[in-house]
């Protein structure tokens, strides 16, 4: 970002130089300030804006300016707001002059140069405090009208052609967010930076006692490469350390979840009836709060040929908002509550380099690498829907899947008979229900002598160990070739298509992975159990044979372009033009048996399942970018 140094001279006709009425002395002060400011600007590589009172520049100042070989000096009057609004650095010679600069900037520096001042050559920073108030009101008004009896669906399908109106309904919803926001920025000599912010939000979605949420945040940074003891490291261009901690909030629930609603449910003994709404009100519901801390490093070496950043973070969410079931006997089905506490932690790394950079050829590469680990810490005594209970397991990430572990496929009836005989002695039941030759035999995890729900264990962790992308760009004169590769490693998913195959429905096709790999008397070493219609065995239960790695490497995008020379463009009065050829999703390297390892079932609770709803499409396009 381009920075400006503003040099303000004393104007003895005003109160700016209130500490002296001696015009000669004031001029000397300003002249000294000018010299010091130019020296400072050249050292810091800043642009200079030379602000002077509304009279001609004195000859003494012109002499100083002309003696300095600095092409970025800009002279303007105090009334010029354009450059001054962009200034980051201000050097003035008077205390009251500082009040003159009340434009909003993150930092304003003032360097005292008068020896009559108590703060001799004192570098002073004026922090900027900004306050924002915002009120958002959203109104949704929906009218639902139902008409029937249209003559046809192609032509006479407007409302006037209908024979009758079979129903009408109106939904009116209104919710609001009342917000206060304040921020304090502090910077010192382009080395040390700090920022504090505080946000207060009131949402109509919560009850009167819980509407307000308060979210503070603090961040600090140290540009170590600006320190004098780093100056002798000429290969070091930038080294910056960052740290932050703060809170955010969420209102991801239905409107007015704390209030009781009523609905019409037809008639009762010939009279209209009104019953309680399906949602149980929760007056204790409140803001979902997330506290995140972050530490990062930015770096650049060798004239910015090598650059990047490293970030590590820890994110703690208290009282995540989600629906929870309610007991059926109450007549109400669910309620919203702060039911989950969870933690996320991970890292993000970006590394780039201009490997080759000369007049005709440039090779630029950027590698991004990320990892995230989430854990459910607590369920806050919330009820979880039975079909979702195993997606919310304390100590594991959301979307974890439990299932059976296959020991082997049964090859003889004698093996089943021996297991059942022992099970009948202990519990008077079979070892594994309805199991025969060619079926899976699951592991007895708890060692109690039978296979039941207690033998189900964690078989899927959907979170990859790491994921990221790799970008490369090669430029030779007017030609450019770039490509982006995307990758993920270490994740797992349940391929639900194989469960459907195992159900052995008549007239139901099987997936390519299952075809030719299921057990038959002639194919006893098969990976999957037998397929036969009408069987009520446990082969379609969730088990580790249907779990696969979602690791992959994909050519996400590749583009070849040519910039048309200016000589040709001038004939058509064009500023720039290039021809390009782009291909996306050219290939994917993976061991996933389905269509796409990246496609997961929608919803966080099902993120460990892949139903392969639609194949990933490839595309090739050619085009022309033309600018006049």
Could you describe the 3D structure shown?
- There is one protein chain.
- It is globular, with a radius of gyration of 35 Å.
- The chain contains 7 helices and 29 strands.
- Strand 13 (288-301) and strand 14 form a beta hairpin.
- It has helices spanning 23-44, 59-67, 82-85, 95-100, 413-427, 496-502, 566-571, and strands at 4-8, 47-52, 73-77, 89-91, 107-111, 123-148, 164-188, 192-203, 212-223, 236-250, 262-268, 271-276, 288-301, 306-325, 334-357, 361-378, 401-403, 406-409, 440-442, 457-460, 466-476, 479-489, 492-495, 547-549, 552-563, 576-584, 588-590, 609-610, 619-627.
- The two termini are 28 Å apart.
- The chain has a 16-stranded antiparallel β-sheet that branches. A 4-stranded parallel β-sheet has the order 3-2-1-4, with helices on one face. The protein has a 3-stranded mixed β-sheet with strand order 24-23-28.
- With 628 residues, the chain is mostly beta strands.
- Residues 1-29, 49-56 and 69-129 have low confidence and may be disordered.
Q: Approximately how much helix is present in the residues?
A: 10-25%
Strand content: 35-45%
The overall average pLDDT, rounded, is 77
> What characterizes the major β-sheet?
16 strands, antiparallel
| Terminal residue distance | 28 Å
Unreliable segments (pLDDT under 50, ≥5 consecutive)? 1-29, 49-56, 69-129
DSSP summary: helix tally: 7
Number of strands: 29
Backbone CA Rg: 35 Å
Supply the helix-strand structural class.
mainly beta
Q: What's the shape?
A: globular
């Amino acid at each position: 970002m381009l920075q400006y140094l503003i040099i303000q001279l004393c104007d003895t006709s005003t109160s700016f130089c209130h500490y002296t009425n001696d015009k000669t002395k004031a001029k000397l002060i300003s002249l000294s300030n000018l010299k010091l400011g130019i020296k400072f600007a050249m050292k810091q590589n800043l642009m200079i804006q030379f602000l002077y009172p509304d009279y001609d520049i004195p000859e003494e100042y012109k002499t100083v300016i002309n003696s300095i070989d600095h092409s970025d000096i800009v002279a303007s009057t105090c009334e010029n707001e354009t450059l001054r609004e962009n200034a980051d650095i201000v050097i003035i010679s008077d205390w009251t002059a500082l009040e003159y600069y009340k434009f909003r900037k993150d930092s304003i520096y003032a360097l005292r140069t008068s020896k009559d001042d108590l703060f001799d050559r004192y570098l002073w920073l004026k922090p900027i405090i900004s306050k924002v108030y915002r009120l958002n009101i959203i109104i949704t008004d929906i009218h639902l009208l139902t008409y029937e009896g249209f003559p046809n669906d192609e032509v006479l399908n407007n409302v006037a052609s209908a024979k009758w109106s079979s129903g009408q309904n109106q939904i009116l919803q209104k919710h609001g967010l009342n917000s206060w926001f304040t921020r304090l920025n502090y910077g010192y000599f382009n080395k040390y930076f700090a920022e504090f912010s505080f946000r207060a939000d009131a949402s109509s979605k919560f009850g009167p006692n819980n509407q307000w949420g308060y979210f503070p945040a603090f961040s600090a940074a140290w540009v170590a490469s600006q320190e004098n003891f780093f100056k002798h490291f000429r290969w070091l261009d930038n080294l910056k350390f960052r740290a932050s901690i703060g809170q955010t909030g969420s209102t991801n629930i239905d409107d007015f979840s704390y209030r009781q609603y009523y609905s019409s449910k037809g008639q009762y003994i010939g009279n209209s009836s009104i019953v309680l709404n399906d949602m149980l009100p929760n007056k204790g519901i409140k803001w979902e709060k997330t506290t995140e801390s972050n530490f990062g490093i930015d770096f650049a070496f060798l004239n910015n040929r090598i650059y990047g950043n490293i970030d590590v973070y820890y994110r703690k969410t208290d009282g995540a908002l989600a629906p929870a079931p309610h007991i059926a006997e109450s007549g109400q089905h669910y309620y919203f509550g702060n039911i989950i506490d969870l933690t996320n932690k991970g890292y993000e790394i970006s590394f780039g380099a201009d490997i080759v950079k000369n007049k005709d050829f440039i090779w630029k590469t950027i590698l991004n690498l990320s990892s995230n680990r989430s854990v459910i810490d607590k369920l806050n005594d919330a009820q979880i829907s039975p079909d979702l209970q195993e997606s919310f397991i304390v100590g594991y990430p959301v979307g974890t899947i439990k299932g059976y572990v296959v020991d082997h496929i049964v090859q003889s009836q004698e093996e089943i008979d021996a297991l059942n005989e022992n099970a009948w002695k202990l519990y008077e039941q079979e070892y594994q229900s309805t199991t025969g030759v060619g079926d899976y035999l699951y592991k007895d995890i708890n060692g109690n002598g039978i296979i039941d729900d207690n033998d189900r264990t964690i078989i899927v962790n959907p979170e990859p160990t790491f994921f990221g992308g790799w970008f490369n760009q090669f430029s030779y004169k007017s030609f450019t070739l770039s490509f982006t590769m995307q990758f993920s490693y270490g994740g797992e998913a349940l391929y639900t298509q194989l469960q459907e195959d195992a159900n052995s429905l008549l007239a139901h096709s099987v997936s390519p992975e299952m075809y030719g790999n299921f057990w038959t008397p002639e194919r006893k070493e098969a990976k999957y159990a037998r397929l036969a219609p009408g069987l009520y065995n446990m082969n379609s239960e969730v088990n580790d044979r249907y779990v696969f790695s979602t690791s992959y490497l994909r050519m996400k995008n590749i583009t070849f372009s040519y910039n048309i020379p200016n000589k040709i463009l001038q004939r058509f009065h064009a500023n720039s033009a290039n021809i390009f050829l782009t291909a996306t999703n050219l290939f994917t390297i993976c061991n996933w048996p389905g269509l796409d390892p990246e496609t997961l079932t929608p919803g966080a609770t099902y993120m460990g399942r892949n139903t392969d709803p639609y194949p990933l499409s490839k595309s090739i396009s050619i085009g022309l970018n033309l600018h006049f």
